[in-house]
Amino acid sequence: MESRQPNSTDEIDHDQASSARRIQRLSSHLYPQPLDGAGAEMAVALMACAGRAKLDVDTELLSKYMRGRYRDVQQGVYDYFNSRPELQTPIEISKDEHRELCMRQLMGLVREAGIRPFRYVVQDPAKYFAILEAVGSVDMSLGIKMGVQFSLWGGSVLNLGTKKHRDKYFEGIDNVEYPGCFAMTELHHGSNVQGIQTVATFDPMKDEFVIDTPNDGAIKWWIGNAAVHGKFATVFAKLMLPTHDTKGVSDMGVHAFIVPIRDMKTNKPLPGVQIHDCGHKVGLNGVDNGALRFRSVRIPRDNLLNRFGDVARDGKYTSPLPSINKRFAATLGELVGGRVGLAYSSVGVLKIAVIIAVRYSLLRQQFGPPKQPEISILDYQSQQHKLMPMLASTYAFHFATSHLVDTYGEMKKTHDEELVGDVHALSAGLKAYVTSYTAKSLSTCREACGGHGYAAVNRFGSLRNDHDIFQTFEGDNTVLLQQVAGYLLKQYKEKFHGGTFSVTWNYLRESMNFYLSQPNPVTARWEGQDHLRDPKFQLDAFRYRTSRLLQSVAVRLQKHSKTLGSFGAWNRCLNHLLTLAESHIETVILAKFIDAVRSCPDEKSRAALKLLCDLYAMDRIWNDIGTYRNVDYVAPNKAKAIHKLTEYLCFQVKNVAKEMVDAFDLPDYVTRAPIGMQAAEDAYTVYTQYAGF
Description:
Elements lengths: L8 H22 L7 H13 L8 H9 L3 H13 L11 H18 L12 H14 L1 H21 L2 H12 L5 E4 L15 E5 L4 E5 L7 E4 L8 E11 L6 E12 L12 E5 L12 E5 L2 E4 L9 E2 L5 E2 L5 H10 L3 H27 L17 H34 L2 H32 L11 H8 L9 H19 L15 H5 L13 H4 L2 H38 L1 H26 L3 H21 L1 H6 L5 H20 L1 H6 L11 H4 L5 H9 L2
Parallel strand pairs: 1-5, 2-5
Antiparallel strand pairs: 2-3, 3-9, 4-8, 5-6, 7-8, 10-11
Helix pairs in contact: 1-2, 2-21, 4-6, 5-7, 6-7, 6-10, 7-8, 10-11, 10-12, 11-12, 11-18, 11-19, 11-21, 12-13, 12-14, 12-18, 14-18, 17-18, 17-19, 18-19, 19-21
């Protein structure tokens, strides 16, 4: 039967009108049309975009932009371990073997490969952290051991000591002849460093300090490098000076001391030093954590790291800072690099997990339409919603932590007080937020890979176990978020006293007027794609949420402090304060992502990054849509449009997911999961070598 051809202009017009009505009815199901017709506009825009070809991404150019100026030094790390397969950590390895392998890996990196991270700790922190990310991707235990040696033990000598200490110890730390520890945490005191009980009493007769552990609670605990390899320790203790009054001694606050703990030749503990092995841990078993107890251990007076406080031969104490609290703050402020490194390294872990999960999801096929081939599991909306916002977040965190590293480097050069406070708060917030997100994402990635994700060869188990402690050391995440909230409240208070805002908090300058004004009833209903994908709308939404949270918690604290006191009021509002801190950090992350998109020189890469940036913003807004709806910042129709746009962006990111994970440019032996690199039908061949068939 021949198909009927339209034979008049009227019939053609009729068919076109009929098609238009069908499209309109379909659009009305997807996007309920408000009075202003914006819903139809949104639907038509999305349908038009859906019909376009996927973005063309040049992974080489994007990778060059991502990895920046330190791509070569990272590649040097990868090339070295690729050339030395015997130094790659096997899947099955005992605790003791892993510890010795880690030490050989570190020695090989420094002495064979000629990569000397310690030289960059102060002079070029960004280069140091780039090396740390690459090393941690090879084996997270190696990354932590390197951090203990160079950033903590070495960093304490550089940052808390003076020229005499640098001259004496630099070369030995640099070439790992002086392996060392960072002995701050005690059995009874972790986050509360000012409460530590180890004491260092000055003996003017012998010109020495006497280090003592007064009780079991003061034993230094979880000290990396202490159980096996450490020869020295930077010991944090209360400095006690003799006086001529009834007290007999004066507590000058927490100071840092270099204490030799093992004989350089025999490796035996020195007299008065007791060392205990903390044993097998949940993860990071290549790091030899131990406990240290000191019984009247004597060290020369010169072993006091005396940048912020010194003791003369006659016992007189001098300091450029006027109080114990200011000296303590300055001491901890110089150690903030550990948090910077953890935040940056956590993003590196997230990259590995996302690469494995996305590649597997692209290759694994399950089910499909009747009598048709099975489809990739990443074609399922549920898998897209698990992994695509995570991929977008990985990029967002990369740019945010890169900004943190650059700001930290600037702070180390200039010692600008404003930057010091900014880095302290930003490092606390990003470390807490990023490590918590990565910890949750590792489990999500494992689940997204089904049963194959449970195989040890695919790294999820070791990554999850090794990374888990990132949420605790260098500051418990809950404690760090409270510090961020405290800084926000301090800035809020200064607003009313005419003070200035530091860099990260600039947007709060407007928060008391623009952001806290009544939501505009017109813009609350705008739902066009151009509007929702406008960086200004996205940032305004994030900043509005933070500003409302800040104002409301300030009011609550003032109210409750009248009856509960300041401590009780803080505890009553604690969950509110944590939400405030997280909201602020999300705002900073989005701002830095937007900046990175604008700065990208390659047009194709910029378009791909914009897509991920939009998904990051829309996903966060949708996840907290209740907050925006409660105050009518977003009208119901706009909320629906945000949801639909989030789904659409997940689909669009899925189409370029392979290119976006390839741009991380990690070597195959790092993302060595066979199911992440080979088709499902080849998995049997790979697994049999591990199963012994």
